[in-house]
Amino acid sequence: MEKTWNNKAWFMVLPVLVLVAFSAVIPLMTVVNYSVQDTFGGNQFFWAGAEWFEEMLHSDRFWAAMGRNLIFSAIILAIQIPLGIFIALNMPRKGWGVPVCLVLMALPLLIPWNVVGTIWQVFGRIDIGLLGYTLHALGFDYNYVNDPFDAWVTVIVMDVWHWTSLVVLLCYAGLVSIPDAFYQAAKIDGASRWAVFRYIQLPKMQRVLLIAVLLRFMDSFMIYTEPFVVTGGGPGNSTTFLSIDLVKMAVGQFDLGPAAAMSIIYFLIVLLLSWVFYTVMTNYDVEK
Amino acid sequence: MARIDLNHIRHAYGANPKSDKDYALREVHYGFEDGGAYALLGPSGCGKTTLLNIISGLLHASHGQLLFDGKDVTRLSTQERNIAQVFQFPVIYDTMTVYDNLAFPLRNRGVGEADVDRKVRETLDMIDLASWAKRKARGLTADQKQKISLGRGLVRSDVNAILFDEPLTVIDPHMKWVLRSQLKQLHRRFGYTMIYVTHDQTEALTFAEKVVVMYDGEIVQIGTPAELFERPKHTFVGYFIGSPGMNVMPVAVEGRRARLGGQTIELPGTPKAEGASIELGIRPEYVRLGAKGMPVTIRKVEDIGRHKVVRASLEGREIAAILGEDDHVPADPHVSFDPAGINLYDKSWRVEMGA
């Protein structure tokens, strides 16, 4: 039978092409455009080549923000993944407790990010915030406005409060899909609680954990709203993560060229790290 | 291996059972001989899996006592009972190799590595997976996975019994046959006490020395495959075993005769029961189709290869008869019943016939 060729089919993908072009490709290209040019305002641009990229890669400010961001993501993953697994393991599997737990877990995820920031900004204040005031009354020298360590603790606890639920819900979904027979067989095989976790539950959660790690890594690496609202990047530069620095540079100082170069480097790093995570974790899956 | 005694075991899933209806298992009082191969046969929901889980200790019976070799194990945990169980869907630990899967129950019990190795290699040979030892268990086919499930039971040489809960459900038809004969072989060689739950009569009849037929939470008959076929104790056994099942029709008994509508059937003996609830049961294999006997109307003839199944109507009731592959349906069909195949039932339970 002869195949009919009909190029009209391309029109079918036109809407999505237009949409993606305007929402992603064109803005990205604009950024690329900025990153290789210099401007002194007045819509006048001069070719700058790789100058901004070189400047960025040699900038202490950039690497300091990057370092803070990597440490932040590492801490977030180190806390949220084990904590999420732990909570998921201890959630009820049947009965009235299931909907209650699921709703409680979903609540922080439903709150807009700037509201989360505002909640914690107020919560942590030592004059009127419940947390800050109580800590102070108990004799702790807690003040996220002055003390970089306290600022970090606040931002991390806030993120844990906000996002651990996501890990919990993903893990819980993985756990409830395990048939009862597996637990029964484990009982018959005399497996300990740890062995059940290690050889039944963990392998069954592997896929959702991969997604959880990826999502939490990317989200925490790109974190902006919450620390911006709570600490505004301070005290000093102590909680100035890449995205906050980027906004300062682009909107605050109107350094479009360096900011565009930074965006692209930032984007490539997120892409690269996600790819590495994904490859490592899926390869592990295949090998084993 | 052990003898397993079920001493008036009853089980209800809900608390405070009141009537018989609340019991998933009404009352089971039976002993499984040491080294026997048993099948628990019955339709879905008849309580066979409940009974199996009570034996393995995954469930604790609400009433009654369970004895292994005379020792009361009613309250013991699964682990303490030392039972192996193979489930409907193969359970394997997919991150482990085949070898480690088999070693798992031994290592959990703190067996030394040298013994583990010896036992695992023995078991791998028994289940024909020796060449797969180093492979990850996740890539295996369903029947290989099910063999590993079985192997994890076999590897512990001291298990009291091996229980199977419809283990061949997800296996391809031709592998079913292979696995079943391997199981029989293992049973013959090593003399395990095996209890095999199934709703497939072929599986039950080919696997077991004794078949326990369950219906609605209780055991209706225990017997060899031949006994179940020739002398079903309950009309349910008659229906459930055999293809097609037994013909059952209400009759009025008068001495050595049974009256079915306008027809009279000679009985092989005088039944020790009478009344309105008497039924006559006869398997299609014992219904003779010919020129003499009771007139029937043929409804249809199904040719199923080795023989034909004739569906006919006798006195307004459906009746099935089996006809040889080369036999022909007579022009003016009549049926007669072979006295050897006639059973009488009172309120669904079989009644003996005197001489």
From TrEMBL, chain A:
Residue ranges annotated as transmembrane are 12-36, 70-89, 96-115, 160-183, 208-225, 259-280
Q: Name one GO biological process term.
A: transmembrane transport
Is Membrane one of the keywords UniProt gives this record?
yes
Topology versus the membrane: Multi-pass membrane protein
Cellular location(s): Cell membrane
Domain annotation ABC transmembrane type-1: ranges: 66-277
Q: Which UniProt keywords apply?
A: Membrane, Transmembrane, Transmembrane helix, Transport
Stored CDD domains: TM_PBP2
Q: Name one GO cellular component term.
A: plasma membrane
Recorded family membership = Belongs to the binding-protein-dependent transport system permease family.
- State the protein's name: ABC transporter permease
Which organism does this sequence originate in? Aminobacter aminovorans
UniProtKB/TrEMBL annotation, chain B:
What CDD domains does this protein map onto?
ABC_Carb_Solutes_like
Read off the SMART domains from this record: AAA
Annotated Gene Ontology cellular component terms: ATP-binding cassette (ABC) transporter complex, substrate-binding subunit-containing
Cellular location(s): Cell inner membrane
Key word Nucleotide-binding present in the record? yes
Membrane topology, as annotated: Peripheral membrane protein
Q: Which UniProt keywords apply?
A: ATP-binding, Cell membrane, Membrane, Nucleotide-binding, Transport
**Molecular function in Gene Ontology:** ABC-type ferric iron transporter activity; ATP binding; ATP hydrolysis activity
Q: Which residues form the ABC transporter domain?
A: 4-241
Main localisation = membrane
Q: Return any one Pfam family short name.
A: OB_MalK
Query: Any coiled-coil ranges, and where?
Result: none
Kindly indicate whether the keyword Membrane belongs to this entry. yes
Q: Which family does it belong to?
A: Belongs to the ABC transporter superfamily.
Its name, as the record gives it, is ABC transporter
Write down the species. Aminobacter aminovorans
- Give the source lineage, highest ranks first: Bacteria, Pseudomonadati, Pseudomonadota, Alphaproteobacteria, Hyphomicrobiales
